[in-house]
Amino acid sequence: MKTIYFAGGCFWGTQKYFDQFEGVTRTEVGYANGPDNAPSYEDVCASSGHAETVLVEFDENVISLEKLIYYYFLVIDPTSVNRQGHDTGIQYRTGIYYSDPDMLETIRKAYDEEETLIGAPLAVEVKPLANFFTAEEYHQKYLAKNPAGYCHIPAEFFTLAEDK
């Protein structure tokens, strides 16, 4: 199994989105790449410096890192700084964080292709994972527990895998 971390705005929808894909074996929402102390949700909302992030564990024999990054770019505005949908603040920044340096070449290639496609500089951070703190239990699989919850990702993207 491999693990990649995606900050894509509100982590509720990002988690639900990635849960649908065959080969994704586990997801977990948390707070990444802020100060080294574990924050609460309230701390993150008060600009602790952490990004709402989803840990995505995947079987690379079933789904590639390239495909996951492709799916990631489908549901974010990669040129937006500290904002996705109606959510604003540093915790809603976009980022691809990796703990395996061997992933960097693949990430960079996908990033450069997306930047060329968009025709503008991207605001997506590409950084090694500095830290990841698991979010409170009530945030885990939040949209599965609260289907009417707000998300910047349009609902039709939650069944993208079914449409293939």
CATH-assigned homologous superfamily: Peptide methionine sulphoxide reductase MsrA
Mean pLDDT: 96
- Bulk shape: globular
Q: Which architecture per CATH?
A: 2-Layer Sandwich
Under CATH at level 1, the class stands as: Alpha Beta
According to CATH, the fold-level topology is Peptide Methionine Sulfoxide Reductase, Chain A
How many domains is the backbone divided into? 1
Low-pLDDT sequence parts:
none
Span of the ends, CA to CA: 24 Å
User: Could you give the order of the helices and strands?
Assistant: EHEHEHEEEHEEH
The count of strands amounts to: 8
Instruction: Kindly name the structural category.
Output: alpha+beta
Helix segment tally? 5
Helix content estimate: 25-40%
Q: Compute the CA-based radius of gyration.
A: 15 Å
Oligomer: single chain
Strand order of the largest sheet: 7-6-1-3-2-8
What is the strand content?
Answer: 15-25%
What does this structure look like?
26% of the residues lie in helices and 24% in strands. The chain has a single domain, classed as Peptide methionine sulphoxide reductase MsrA (Peptide Methionine Sulfoxide Reductase, Chain A, 2-Layer Sandwich), CATH 3.30.1060. The model has no long low-confidence stretch (mean pLDDT 96). The chain has 164 residues and is of the alpha+beta class. The protein is globular, with a radius of gyration of 15 Å. The longest helix has 15 residues. The strands form 2 sheets. The protein has a 6-stranded mixed β-sheet, with helices on one face. A two-stranded antiparallel sheet has the order 4-5.
